[in-house]
Design a protein that fits this description.
The protein has 3 domains: 2-152, Beta Polymerase, domain 2 (2-Layer Sandwich); 240-366, cca-adding enzyme, domain 2, CATH 1.10.3090; 377-424, no CATH class. It is 56% helix and 10% strand. It has 21 helices and 11 strands. The strands form 3 sheets. A 7-stranded mixed beta sheet has the order 3-4-5-2-1-8-9. The chain has a two-stranded antiparallel ribbon with strand order 6-7. Strand 6 (97-100) and strand 7 form a beta hairpin. Helix 8 (169-181) runs parallel beside helix 10 (207-218) and helix 13 (275-284) crosses helix 17 (342-351). The chain starts with a helix and ends with a helix. The chain binds cytidine-5'-triphosphate. Cytidine-5'-triphosphate binds at residues 34-35, 48, 50, 122-123, 127-128, 167, 169-170, 173.
């Protein structure tokens, strides 16, 4: 595997050599494993280094993070840690472990083990390969379950019959990898997946774990492709029993897809969208508000996420009505949309065909949202106004006038301020 490692970007190669050196000086053998090895062989970019340590993973992570002056997050229960480096690079470090599932669908009990034990506890053959980065056998490939062959044959295969029962989130993971790489299920794996689904294993999983898997699915390059396969294989009961992927929902999600591309193309430098959340809100839009609240409660979303989910459902009718009017002042469009997140605005644009509405939203992004005043606080000060909360009010009034085309120059802005302030006196 040395050849593969040589193809990596220089900073990754350096990081891997450093890990190998530290393994030597700390007498703890280390291996690259999991998704990193899979993607290395596939030639897919992956900046998440996955390392297994035969010894004490957390201690190794501490040494590595100190050496790199990088952040460290420890997960003591699982004897794992994450070293966070700049430029999106991160290293997941695990202590080689054996796992034992005391109850299906619950988190496993963990004891220390060697590399082979660690590979055996993994989900699919393609994720259970390793590469030694130790001095004595740097680059040695370890593939106990035929992962390389499955990768070449484009197959998702579990390591043992109870894989989906032990950890039903693997049902969602299997679909995610299959769709991501355009692979197929090895026939027995497909049978086991369907069986686990018939046994409603996903319902036994802690909802937050399901939520995290669902978010990963919606963060994939082509979430629609993922959802279509979920519909075909397992349905959406694991989110809510009333949920389906009807023709209407599919059409809405397609429209969402094109609106997201529009936004990304047009405004590559604006803030990053929470794309997964837009798709999620689109998917559950078919449900009534009570069911949506139930989902929020079950999945315990972050506050900002729940806020956007409910904002779309609750405010949609009002916004549609206002934005559909024949006549509406730009300042009104601005005041309506300014209070919403970009995610919700994109959903509204995707949902409705009305050309007026679409144009108004485009104007918001294109013109109104970035509009700045010529005047500043210093100008108000020069006019003899003592700083105070009403500065904001004045700015607001002037901005509205500017949005509506009533003032165009700095002089105009200043004249308007004088008018406003004489009225205030
Ligand atoms: N793993 C597992 N069972 C799970 C989750 C993870 O066996 N339920 C193992 C797999 O070997 C996987 C590795 O842990 O490769 C790392 O997991 P994760 O980072 O979630 O996945 P990746 O394979 O790295 O996938 P991605 O490319 O989506 O990050």
């Amino acid at each position: 595997m040395k050849e593969y490692l040589k193809r990596l970007p220089k900073d990754l190669q350096d990081l891997i050599s450093l890990a190998g050196d530290l393994a030597y000086s700390n007498n703890m053998p280390v291996y690259l494993v999991g998704g990193f090895v899979r993607d290395l062989i596939l030639g897919v970019k992956n900046l998440d280094l996955d390392i297994v340590v035969e010894g004490d993973g957390i201690k190794f992570a501490e040494v590595l993070s100190q050496k790199l002056n990088a952040g460290l997050i420890r997960h003591r229960r699982f004897r794992t840690a994450t070293v966070i480096l700049k430029r999106h690079l991160k290293v997941d470090i695990a202590t080689a472990r054996r796992e034992y599932y005391p109850q299906p669908a619950h988190l496993p009990e963990v004891t220390s083990g060697v590399l082979k034990d660690d590979l055996m506890r993994r989900d699919f053959t393609i994720n259970a390969m390793a590469i030694s980065i130790n001095r004595q056998d740097f680059g040695r490939f370890i593939d106990c379950f035929g992962g390389e062959e499955d990768l070449a044959d484009k197959k998702i295969r579990v390591l043992h019959n109870l894989s989906f029962i032990d950890d039903p989130t693997r049902i969602l993971r299997a679909i995610r990898f299959k769709q991501r790489y355009n692979f197929k299920f090895e026939p027995k794996t497909l049978k086991l997946l369907r069986q686990a689904n018939r046994l409603k294993m996903l319902e036994m999983v802690q909802p937050q774990r399901l939520r995290d898997e669902l978010i990963l699915i919606l963060k994939e390059e082509r979430p629609l492709k993922q959802l279509i396969r979920i519909k075909e294989l397992i349905g959406f009961d694991f989110i809510n029993s009333g949920l389906s992927l009807s023709k209407n929902t599919l059409a809405f999600l397609k429209s969402i897809e094109s609106q997201i591309s529009w936004f990304k193309r047009k405004y590559p430098k604006r803030r990053q969208l929470d794309i997964w959340l837009i798709y999620f809100i689109g998917l559950i839009d078919q449900l009534n508000i009570n069911n949506i609240k139930l989902i929020c409660k079950k999945f315990v979303f972050r506050r900002g996420e729940e806020k956007r989910i409910l904002a779309y459902k609750k405010l949609k009718p009002k916004f549609i009505k206002e934005l559909n009017r024949d006549k509406i002042k730009p300042s009104k469009v601005f005041s309506l949309l300014e209070s919403l997140s970009y995610e919700v605005i994109i959903l509204i644009k995707a949902k409705f065909k009305n050309a007026n509405l679409k144009k108004r939203i485009e104007d918001f992004f294109e013109v109104y949202n970035g509009m700045r005043l010529y005047i500043s606080g210093a100008d108000l000060h020069k006019l003899g106004l003592t700083p105070g909360p009403y500065y904001q009010k004045i700015f607001h009034r002037v901005l509205n006038a500017k949005l509506d085309g009533l003032v165009k120059t700095k002089k105009g802005e200043l004249e308007l301020i004088k008018k406003i302030t004489t009225r205030l006196k």
